[in-house]
Amino acid sequence: MTSSSINIPLTIIKAFSIWIIFQIAFYWGGAVGPLLPQSMKAIVFGGSLSLFVYFLTKVYLRTDTLTMGDLGMTLSPGSWMRFSLSLVVGMAFFGAFFVAYLLFTPVKIVPILEPNYLNTIFVSLLSFVMLGVMEELVFRGYFMKKLETAIGIRGAIYLTSIAFGLYHGITIDSITGPAIWGLLYAVLAYWSKGLAIPIGFHIGANYIQALFSQKEKWVSGLWNFDVTQQSTLFTIEQVTLMNQLALLTLAIFLVEYYLRKVRPKQEQ
Predict the structure, then answer these.
(1) Which helix (H) or strand (E) holds 109?
(2) What digits encode the pLDDT tens for the residues 186-240?
(3) Helix H segments across the chain?
(4) Which 3 state secondary structure label does DSSP give 171?
(5) Contacts of residue 236, Cβ cutoff 8 Å, sequence gap at least 6
(6) CA distances from 140 to 38, 97, 159 (A)
(7) pTM higher than 0.85, yes or no?
(8) Distance separating alpha carbons of residues 73 and 67, to the nearest angstrom
(9) Could you count the other beta carbons within 10 Å of the beta carbon of residue 53?
């Protein structure tokens, strides 16, 4: 057995170990969560774990050939602009899924009575900034780039995306939902050679969900969805399936297009 064949499984183990350590910290932090005010839970939880993952990554890099720049974890002059634009695009992109429900299913938007505007607009935005940074640092940072050195980009994207789904729960919904979004975030990280765009896009998608009361574990919303008795072209379940298939198709197309068209040009 050659040294290179031995190094491959060791590299995979090292890549997965940073995710495992994060999961342990995540669940330990969840035990502390109930002690925090609801409005501050995501900010403190996401912020502290983001710092933990950042410094844990630096520890890993002390015995690695990868650098923070290789992981896309360094700021450049255009990082804030890319982040801001991708946040808006992420909100619009996820909003398109909600529009599909409004157009084709018996769903309507209902405003929340006496909403907490400060909490929903500002606190929730800061909350999902912290949570989005945390998740992208873990799954599209060292974990993905280290796996790439052992099994290639395609394998790294798909494996970390599955891990991203399972992190949201060991259920089928985690694979048909978050895991597919993980493919999109991963290819954005590779395409842009950094984390600013996937972080912004990720936060934007979560924030639009929060505004429509889809993230009540962390924050309250401004609007909610209600089901009417009207007859519509499709059911909610049918549109959900179509949205998932459309997202999966788009994500796989972007991954394969990147690998076959974009990456070869970048290497020239």
Answers:
(1) strand 107-111
(2) 999 999 999 999 999 999 999 999 999 998 888 888 999 999 888 888 999 999 9
(3) 3-32, 38-61, 79-104, 117, 124-137, 143-167, 172-176, 178-192, 196-211, 236-257, 263-267
(4) coil
(5) 101, 105, 106, 107, 227
(6) 28, 24, 11
(7) yes
(8) 9
(9) 27
Is residue 180 within 8 A of residue 247, CB to CB? The reply is yes
Res. 121 pLDDT band, cuts 50 70 90:
confident
In b/e form, how buried is each residue of 142-161, taking b as 16+ CB within 10 angstroms?
bbbbbbbbbeebeebbbbbb
- CA–CA separation, 236 and 130 (whole Å): 31
Structure token digits, residue 224: 């909610």
Q: Which amino acid is at 64?
A: D
Tokens for 262, please give them.
């974009």
Concatenating the DSSP letter of every residue in 189-210 gives HHHHTSSHHHHHHHHHHHHHHH
- Dihedral of the CA atoms 71, 94, 130, 50 (nearest 10)? -30
| Enclosing H/E stretch for 225 | strand 223-227
